[in-house]
Amino acid sequence: MADMVSIFMSIGLNEQKAKETLKNEALSSTLKKAIEQARGLLGSASIDKTAGTMLYNMVTRLKDSTRLSFLTEYIITRKINSELQLSAALDFIKSHPQENLDRLQFDAACGVGVVVTPEQIEDAVELIIRKHKDQLLAERYRFNMGILMGEARTALKWADGKIVKNEVDMQVLHLLGPKTEADLEKKPKWDRSNLELKPFLHKICLLFVGEANTEGKSLMEQLRGEALKFHKPGENYKTEGYVVTPNTMNLLKKHLEETGGQVRTRFPPEPNGILHIGHAKAINFNFGYAKANNGICFLRYDDTNPEKEEEKYFTAIKEMVEWLGYKPYAVTHASDQFQLLYDLAVDLIRRGHAYVCHQRGEELKGHNIPPSPWRERPVEESLLLFDRMRKGMFAEGEVTLRMKMVMEDGKMDPVAYRIKYTPHHRTGDTWCIYPTYDYTHCLCDSIENITHSLCTKEFQARRSSYFWLCNALDLYCPVQWEYGRLNLTYTVVSKRKIIKLVETGIVRDWDDPRLFTLTALRRRGFPPQAINNFCARVGVTVAQTTMEPHLLEACVREVLNDTAPRAMAILEPLKVTITNLCPNKVLIPDFPANEAKGSHVVPFSKTIFIEQSDFREVMEKGYKRLTPDQPVGLRHAGYVISVQRVIKDGCGKVCELEVTCASSDSVEKPKAFIHWVSDPLRCEVRLYESLFLHKNPEDPAEVPAGFLSDINPNSLTVIGSALVDRSVGKAKVFDKFQFERVGYFSLDPDSTSEKLVFNRTVTLKEDPGKI
């Protein structure tokens, strides 16, 4: 096994990924063959990491192992050297199952030997811009730039997507100039009277009764009054499926007397993990529905499993609820009611609706459980045994208390109480029996006089048991309503899987900015308003919703564009000495589109730093920034610089430029303006990409070796020697900035007085190359 791990690590896999791969025998065997074939072709045991990554990706996706040698040869000889080419190769093989492949056809289909020059990219983009020029000039930055990228990618199939995007951005900027204040204004809302003329707006969201359009509606508008067709407080009996007993109306009358007809909801998380993006929808729905209808919402911890609960989860959950802008009417715990819940269980036995059972846990799993031989045992016997359960006279798993009912999914007699000899976070050793969710949930709702018990769709199978238990005990019965879960692609949110990521060192903790827990999103710099806006756009749907991360990122950009002050930072510095400058200071607006919102002053000395990518020693067609023959403007400074001397180190790398400057009013307008820093602060910058390579890392069809084998090796890039202007020197943790021309960033808790650390929240624009 150790030998195999070493072999897999030799192609660039980390030790954890190598060990995970070994768990899949078929994958391990195929990968080993590919490595042996590659070494044979190279005549060496050394395979570089780029080729190794391509080999691994090929093996994990290859369905026809007879093509292994063929594809290995193409990868090792660099005929296939990009993910785009590999995908095309796999598609071609899948659609051509015959034994002898036509290599010429294959090469053409996979772009083998195709080189796309910068000139070709520039010319192709120029044609596309010319085609849409009139519409671009009319709509300016409201034009759908995705159209330009789509046509460019079609015309330049094998070109590097990032280079194409940069060219499109540059040519659009050259045509339209910088964004004006008018360009930055938010789009007006659609005129709903013309909705029939815009069929693409009919992304209809199924709500609880009928259909409704959520396009452009705030969350409060979606949740207010009659929008969801929910029952009014006290009119529970009008809900379809609600069970009415002879005492129902009396109980509802008493309920109204105690609540005054007020809407009451609750958010009931289990305190055994950190909240994630799916919980954000639940928080917005529960707290939002109460707020929209002048009601109240409880934060109730479902703390009935002492084995998994920790103080840090209680604290983090409340913190995240408040971070999203909601204040609970009261913070309660299921454990507050342990004595009352026990008393109700005794009453349930007395009424003949529950019994003590000796079937073991393994016998109760699944849906075809044989009826318990103790189902009809005498009430007095169950009461005696239940009392002995409480007193700790049985071992864990030896007995349970079960309810006499059949759930909607066919599960018979669910467990109400089980034995756990684990001290409880709040009650210590007082109890050794704990109620289950099926027993606790509806009874706590009843005790707190909840009017609308809002749950995700998977709890629909428990609705009948919810009504049954309240009615069996002759208690006020709330109404359970279900809505669809919110999921995101390219991530995992399961507590068990996040713990695995933490334990294996793939991520640092629950708040690692590559995760989609709420603490991670906060650390990355996502504003709570953006998350709430995202939930509103998703809408309150019955169907499960799966969204892509870039839709959430779009909401983040929208908020940060209005709220994140501008600063300048250099990630890969190149020193520039201005030989004819008298040092001074420059006033920079915090929000260039609205200078009334404030400004800051930065030094402007003879030594400045620019991005290495903003200088090229050899002029290339279409390049608009600094070269020995082409000047460039400095943003906000009012100067244009021209290269006088290029200084190189001992390895021939450019390490410094000597330039002269002239007032921008006295020279011809340059083709581009770049950002810069002077007398800067050193800082660390962390750049994040998707944690996973595939859209659905938990799907065995996409990732046969499991989600831990799908980690993106480039999900985190740390730049330890970046430079930032001094205006951010007094920033506090989680303060947010737009680093001009670079992206949106947030100050990380790892920052110290000696060194600031910034996390990239999102790029300035959505990457059209994102899947």
From TrEMBL:
Catalytic activity: tRNA(Gln) + L-glutamine + ATP = L-glutaminyl-tRNA(Gln) + AMP + diphosphate
Glutamyl/glutaminyl-tRNA synthetase class Ib anti-codon binding domain: residues covered: 564-661
Pfam families linked: tRNA-synt_1c (PF00749), tRNA-synt_1c_C (PF03950), tRNA-synt_1c_C2 (PF20974), tRNA_synt_1c_R1 (PF04558), tRNA_synt_1c_R2 (PF04557)
EC nos: 6.1.1.18
Domain tRNA synthetases class I (E and Q) anti-codon binding: 673-748
Keywords for this protein: Acetylation, Aminoacyl-tRNA synthetase, ATP-binding, Cytoplasm, Ligase, Nucleotide-binding, Phosphoprotein, Protein biosynthesis
Chain ranges of the Glutamyl/glutaminyl-tRNA synthetase class Ib catalytic domain: 262-561
Localization of this protein: Cytoplasm, Cytosol
GO terms under cellular component: aminoacyl-tRNA synthetase multienzyme complex; cytosol
Chief localization: cytoplasm
Keyword Membrane: no
Membrane spanning residue stretches: none
GO molecular function list: ATP binding; glutamine-tRNA ligase activity
BP GO annotations: glutaminyl-tRNA aminoacylation
Segments forming domain Glutaminyl-tRNA synthetase class Ib non-specific RNA-binding: 3-161, 164-253
InterPro entries, A to Z: aa-tRNA-synth_I_CS, Gln-tRNA-synth, Gln-tRNA-synth_Ib_RNA-bd_2, Gln-tRNA-synth_Ib_RNA-bd_N, Gln-tRNA-synth_Ib_RNA-bd_N_1, Gln-tRNA-synth_Ib_RNA-bd_N_2, Gln/Glu-tRNA_Ligase, Glu/Gln-tRNA-synth
Function recorded in the entry: Glutamine--tRNA ligase. Plays a critical role in brain development.
Subunit (UniProt): Monomer. Part of a multisubunit complex that groups tRNA ligases for Arg (RARS1), Asp (DARS1), Gln (QARS1), Ile (IARS1), Leu (LARS1), Lys (KARS1), Met (MARS1) the bifunctional ligase for Glu and Pro (EPRS1) and the auxiliary subunits AIMP1/p43, AIMP2/p38 and EEF1E1/p18. Interacts with RARS1. Part of a complex composed of RARS1, QARS1 and AIMP1.
Similarity comment: family membership: Belongs to the class-I aminoacyl-tRNA synthetase family.
Name of this protein: Glutamine--tRNA ligase
Source organism of this protein record: Cyprinus carpio
High-level lineage: Eukaryota, Metazoa, Chordata, Craniata, Vertebrata
